[in-house]
Amino acid sequence: MHSRMFVHGFTAALTVALTLAGGQAYASPDSGDQLLAARVVTYDASASAEFRAAVDRGAAIWNESVDAVELRPAATGQRANIRILADNGWPRALTTSLGNGTVYIGREAVNEGYDTVRISAHELGHILGLPDRKPGPCTSLMSGSSAGVSCTNPYPNTAEKSEVEGNFGAALTGPAPAARAVEIVD
Ligand SMILES: [Zn+2]
Fold it and tell me: Which domains does the chain have, with CATH numbers?
C-alpha cells in the first residue's frame, strides 16, 4: 500500500506520524492539516449480529484492494461514517454521500445461500461509490446476486478498484460532493 504524502514542511512531524501509524501515515483528526494519505472512513458493525466477522472481512478486503480510502472500525462512542446492520430483508445500501451511509446485511439472501463476505464487500462497494453492474460475472463484485449463489468471490475486479481509487482521489482534492440519499437494493 503506497501513501501519498502532503506534509507541511516538518520532517519531525512526518517521523511522528509514521511512527504512530505503524508505517502508514494518516491525518490526525484534530490537526488542522490537510489529509496526509488515505481518507479514513469509519464503520460501526455492532448491530451486524451473526455477520460481524463477514463485515470485518469485507472491510479488510477493500483495505487490501485500494489505497485512497481505508475502512476502519469506529471507536466506542464515535459516530461512524457507515452503520452496518443485520435484518431480515434483502441486502441493500442507503448512501448519503461518498463514504457515508447505512448497509443492511439481509438474511433473505443469506438464507438463499449467498455468501456473507461477498454481500458485505458488495454493499460496502456501494458506500464507496460503486453502482450495481448486473448482470455480470462472478469476477465482478458489483454483479451482486446476478452471479448466482455459487459465486463466493468477495474481491473487486481491476475496474472496480480503479473506480473507487478515482472516487476518493477526486474527493481528496476536489470539493466535497453534495449529500444525496440513495437506496440501492442488492
Ligand atoms: Zn448492489
Answer: 1-36 (no CATH), 38-185 (3.40.390.10)
The rounded distance, in Å, linking the Cα atoms of 186 and 174 is 30
Catalytic residue among 50, 64, 112, 123: 123
8 Cα to the center of ligand 1, angstroms:
40
Q: Return residues with CB closer than 5 A to ligand 1 (ion).
A: 132, 144, 186
Between the CA of 30 and the centroid of ligand 1 the distance, in Å, is: 34
Is the pLDDT score of 88 beyond 50? yes
pTM of the model: 0.79
The answer to whether residue 123 is catalytic is yes
- pLDDT classification of 38: cutoffs 50, 70, 90: confident
**Angle at which helices 116-127 and 52-65 cross, to 10°:** 60
pLDDT digits (tens, 9 = 90+) for 39-49: 999 999 999 99
